[in-house]
Structures are given as structure tokens and as C-alpha cells.
What we know:
about 240 residues; alpha/beta; Rossmann fold; Arc Repressor Mutant, subunit A; 5-stranded parallel β-sheet; 12 strands; about 35% helix
Amino acid sequence: xxxxxxxxxxxxxxxxxxxxxxxxxxxxxxxxxxxxxxxxxxxxxxxxxxxxxxxxxxxxxxxxxxxxxxxxxxxxxxxxxxxxxxxxxxxxxxxxxxxxxxxxxxxxxxxxxxxxxxxxxxxxxxxxxxxxxxxxxxxxxxxxxxxxxxxxxxxxxxxxxxxxxxxxxxxxxxxxxxxxxxxxxxxxxxxxxxxxxxxxxxxxxxxxxxxxxxxxxxxxxxxxxxxxxxxxxxxxxx
Length: 238
């Protein structure tokens, strides 16, 4: 099945460049040139991924990302930013974007990022990973993850997770007790074959803690291992 990608940018030259390269890579591409059109097409076309420029007419990329997440549209989002938009990059990630790229960019790298975001790992898990229950779920304390249904429940309440938040949580839960560096998480969860920005990992960890930790300053599930990375643990008391 051909993956559908919505590209949103107010510069026709960038739209044309991305559309050509993505179609050459086998994707079905639809485009929009402002924030309002982006939301309309995202809801109507149901794309598999959205490439979203930050600086847009009518509604900027930050607002588009925020509104889509509020409407429970959890399509993966790759944000395009200018070099000096450091705060906007972080804000975009905090609002639910999966990744960002800085302009100017290489079309080849954009395609590589998209493949990484859309790709699912089909390699067998090591024998030491957390075992699934008979119903396919992974249950750790008050957390229940259904990998096949892409659903997560905490204290019997369904969590609203972005695709990348779900994949990160699932990976950590399956490898409970192991310490993972930020670079390792970028490689395994984001599937990057090149050096990425490890702040992406930190922001997504922060999102998950807000949803499953009673006190984010004293997390019981996702622990920070100083100087190394992160480790998922089963709380001793819950």
C-alpha cells in the first residue's frame, strides 16, 4: 500500500522539490500552503505522515501541530524549521512533533528521515525482553500496553500518545531493567543511521513521564541514569 504524505509549506519551490523527490521514492503526496488548509487536508485525507513548515500563513506550524493533537490526530509530524528557531523546535516537539529538520535541507535526507519515522522494526526481540501476556499485552504495575492495537492504558485510563511516544514506551517496557543511552534510543526507536539531536529523546521522555508518573521529579517507571541515559523499571510500590 502506497504511503500518503501531506507536505505543508508556503513556498511553492519547496513544495515542488519535496513532492517530486517523495513521489520518486514511491509516496503518494498531497500538499497545502497554509495552516488552515493543512488541518482540513489532514482530517480529510488521513495521511500517514505530515511534513510541516513552522512559518505558515493563517495558522503557523506550532498551532497546526497543537490543534491536530487536540483533535486526537496522531499522525507522525516532521517539522521544518529555520536555523535560528531553537525555541520553536523544542516547542514543536513538546506539542507532539516526532522530529524536525533545519532549512536548508537535502531532499535525500528528508526521504531518509521519513523512511525512519514510518519504518517499523520487524526484527525478532531478544529472549530477555519483557514477555507478553496471553492477550498480547505487556503489563507492568499500573501500565498496560497492547502492541498490536497500538493502545496504552494507565490506571485503566487510555493514554493519548503520539506514534513516537508509543514506540518509545513500548521499547523501554520490552527492555525493562536495561540502561539505554540517548544515542541507542535514537538508533533503535527513531531508526536513525546518522547522528541525530538527542534532545528529541529527552523531550519524548518528558512527555511520557507527564502521562505515567505521579511525580515527574521522582519518576518510578522511567529513571534517569546520570551520565548514561534512561532505564525503565517496575515500581516497587504502586
